[in-house]
Amino acid sequence: xxxxxxxxxxxxxxxxxxxxxxxxxxxxxxxxxxxxxxxxxxxxxxxxxxxxxxxxxxxxxxxxxxxxxxxxxxxxxxxxxxxxxxxxxxxxxxxxxxxxxxxxxxxxxxxxxxxxxxxxxxxxxxxxxxxxxxxxxxxxxxxxxxxxxxxxxxxxxxxxxxxxxxxxxxxxxxxxxxxxxxxxxxxxxxxxxxxxxxxxxxxxxxxxxxxxxxxxxxxxxxxxxxxxxxxxxxxxxxxxxxx
Amino acid sequence: xxxxxxxxxxxxxxxxxxxxxxxxxxxxxxxxxxxxxxxxxxxxxxxxxxxxxxxxxxxxxxxxxxxxxxxxxxxxxxxxxxxxxxxxxxxxxxxxxxxxxxxxxxxxxxxxxxxxxxxxxxxxxxxxxxxxxxxxxxxxxxxxxxxxxxxxxxxxxxxxxxxxxxxxxxxxxxxxxxxxxxxxxxxxxxxxxxxxxxxxxxxxxxxxxxxxxxxxxxxxxxxxxxxxxxxxxxxxxxxxxxx
Lengths: 243, 243
Description:
The first copy, chain A, is α/β, with parallel strands linked by helices.
């Protein structure tokens, strides 16, 4: 059975303006690879409800899981929960379990549980909460859509809460060989190897280092014996890393 | 007249597996902001032709410009030119001007202009070449689709070659105020300010630093006087950064 597939939707003007560099996609991509869920697509959209609704509906239909990042705080530009509810045709109100979690948190901290903070208890009916051990305001899973915070350490904590609940597949394994020759030299033999090992994914990632061309050849798959065999043939084609 | 819009398509398994962290989106996002082209969407897909063709066709139809990154080298997994040609319903053959550029380059370097290297001269008819001063193999613009390399320094050089050709709009300006209070405190007054300045984009980007909550409030727009006015009202709402 093939591994489950996933998409990630990153929400936020600050990413698209170039002000902030996203860190969450790279973190989650590595975690999904580790547990055998295949990340097929990432989208990044602005803080605009129609764009978020359209992306949520496209990606939840075409993948086993959709993870979103960003837009679940208390400010006016936090509209992800509204957009996800709209994508599912649900209304969004304050939910009692989320409200109670937040009320207790602000009570302990001696802070007012004001209207802005109560906004973070707006969770669609039928969703299950995703624990946020850092700032308490929960994420949620609704169907196959998992709604997570954008602040990187909260995002990572939510990923750690959520992933053990999801059924993974075979971890995607990989081995890398660095070859210190240009891709123009590597390409011919590598293409034949890729055709011979069509059950594996063989990628060539070129680099320039101190003015010299090279490439990292990455062989990926779920069967370690096949990867070993392909890697030994690759190494024989380019002895001593091709240098 | 509103600014032109753009999308970016990042192509490559190595990004989706979490092995490599993309750097090109962040670079181009900043450059587009500078010249007044509004980046509305980013997608990242695997090295799979149907996924690339579908993304190219969706994004070129919905934005004024589409920039792609990755997949134009000489190896078997470099299929972006094929996918773009297919998206436009064109065939793809060796083009003489690109072939001549590459032949002269490899001749100067004393390297064989082999079949793999000739693959990089496959440019759709009607496209204009994008100069690559680093490794010569050109990118190309076909209609509103701009096809660029994935290696970061080559990508950046191609962006520098290409952007002066594109008509920009008003640069997106921004000012930032750091407020050392939680978003739950900031949200109410900030929401009223955002409603008053509906012509601007006002975003709140929370952080946790040494265990204390704060947020950077970013006010964006193209009219510097309006941004100044909104920023002065914001500063009055949160004197001394709210601390």
